[in-house]
Design a protein that fits this description.
It is a single chain. The chain is α/β, with parallel strands linked by helices. The protein contains 10 helices and 22 strands. Helices cover about 35% and strands about 30% of the residues. The strands form 4 sheets. Strands 6, 7, 14, 15, 16, 17, 18, 19 and 22 form a 9-stranded mixed β-sheet that branches. A 6-stranded mixed β-sheet has the order 9-3-2-13-21-20. The protein has a 4-stranded mixed β-sheet with strand order 1-12-11-10. Helix 1 (about 15-25) runs parallel beside helix 3 and helix 7 packs antiparallel against helix 8 (about 325-355). The chain binds flavin-adenine dinucleotide.
Length: about 400
């Protein structure tokens, strides 16, 4: 026997929870299948201004804003010893009339706020279980679960991360490749204030990014090759502190790494379709990009907002929320935003790692022009914070 909902979401990460809140908040009967997470996530997320607006509109931001630190300035520093080095580039939020580009928050606080808001919604059913199989039929999609009866719905939203079962079930292939690099994540206490400035050192192995947290704390994402990642991760507390301080050129004074760290292998991957055959993909199920320029979850939240907007409109007209034309419109609405950011992040990353002198020169010249030409710099900042072309309603502060 199957239970039913109008929409079933697989995956209770930040993208899945956001879609669940947007849909159930608009009265769409939604089931959220979420398997209990195995390990803590010590990462933080830099949420750009339009994502903060969306979370505020959904009643989430009010529950976690006290835990977030504003990002008012972003500095890019070429920390390679190369012949053709780029100049230091400053992006300042007040140059484009913003108080801050966004806010950095620990994932545990963001997830707790999303979870608390989701549990208030009567149209949302939480199913704490693992989806084992997804069967797609003409009129519905059925999710088989590990520990209980299956659930059938008109539409399944795959928010099930980089190894998405939903993507596989819909037969959607991906394009991309592994970078053969790892990102190490730490949270730190430090002696000197960060002054709401995020600093990204571009080194020959990848970026070393310090992002403010409230008070005298910051998060760190350090990209290195996997062997170096294992070496750094195995350092004792004192050695680790010295290693980080050295790589940070002591800009935050003495640092004190907090217990725990994360290791993530870096890859870039984009689904060839974002929706097909009663399955829509959001978040890392749809696209994976390296942690440069804080784009990953910000894209994922725009996916959640875009699919919710289309589903709510179809639901209000009594239409089929899993219909093929809705899938096409969702795919079309997300392709440009995801494609352009994936391309830009990949290019920035590859040009940093490349030994090819002309590419290093072109990179340096681009950053020089950005630093020198105000209108260009402001256009990049505006586009970085939110896509100029038709952002979803939630990103403009309107309910879906
Ligand atoms: C080092 C690092 C730093 C980053 N920093 C930023 C940043 O500053 N800003 C930014 O925007 N992005 C950032 N990102 C990207 C961001 O972390 C991801 O985009 C985001 O976590 C993806 O969320 P998600 O909900 O799509 O997937 P996930 O968080 O992976 O959630 C997927 C969920 O689905 C569940 N699941 C999977 N399969 C099943 C199943 N079969 N049944 C039931 N449940 C299932 C999993 O248990 C999990 O809970 C960073 C990424 C990294 C690696």
């Amino acid at each position: 026997m199957s239970n039913t909902a109008e929409v079933v979401i697989i995956g209770g990460g930040p993208a899945g929870l956001t879609a669940a809140i947007a849909l159930a908040g608009a009265g769409v009967e939604t089931a959220l299948i979420s398997k209990p997470s195995r390990q803590g996530d010590n990462r933080t997320t830099a949420l750009l201004a339009s994502s903060v607006t969306a979370l505020d509109t959904l009643g989430v931001w009010q529950r976690c804003r006290a835990e977030a630190a504003p990002l008012r300035v972003i500095r890019l520093i070429d920390d390679t010893a190369r012949l053709l080095r780029a100049p230091e580039v400053h992006f300042e939020a007040d140059e484009i009339g913003l108080d801050a580009f966004g806010y950095n928050i620990e994932n545990r606080f963001l997830l707790a706020a999303l979870d608390a808001r989701a549990r208030e919604l009567s149209s949302l059913t939480f199913v704490e279980d693992e989806a084992e199989a997804v069967a797609i039929e003409d009129e519905r999609v059925t999710i088989r679960l590990k520990g209980r009866d299956p659930i059938a719905a008109r539409l399944a939203i795959g928010a099930d991360g980089r190894r998405s079962l939903c993507r596989q079930a819909a037969g959607i292939a991906t394009d991309g490749r592994n970078y053969r690099q790892s990102a190490l994540t730490f949270n730190l206490g430090h002696r000197r204030p960060h002054h709401d400035v995020s600093t990204e050192f571009h080194t020959g192995t990848g970026p070393f990014t310090l992002v403010p947290l409230p008070g005298l704390r910051s998060s760190l994402v350090l990209v290195v090759d996997p062997g170096e990642a294992s070496r750094i991760a195995s350092l004792g507390a004192g050695e680790l502190a010295l290693e980080i301080e050295r790589r940070a050129h002591s800009i935050l004074g003495k640092v004190e790494p907090e217990p725990g760290h994360g290791v993530f292998s870096l890859a870039i991957e984009t689904a060839q379709r974002f929706a097909d055959r009663r399955i829509a993909l959001i978040g890392e199920a749809a696209h994976l990009i390296p942690p440069i320029g804080a784009q990953g979850l910000n894209l994922g939240l725009r996916d959640a907002a875009a699919i919710s907007e289309l589903v709510v409109a179809a639901h209000r007209c009594g239409g089929d929320v899993g219909a093929a034309d809705l899938a096409d419109r969702y795919d079309g609405s997300r392709r440009m935003d995801v494609g352009s950011r994936t391309f830009a992040v990949d290019l920035l990353h590859r040009s940093l790692l490349s030994d090819f002198l002309p590419l290093q020169g072109a990179r340096g010249l681009s950053l020089f022009l950005i630093e020198r030409i105000g209108p260009l710099r402001r256009a990049i900042m505006r586009e970085g914070v939110a896509p100029a072309a038709a952002p979803p309603r939630l990103m403009r502060g309107e309910a879906p």
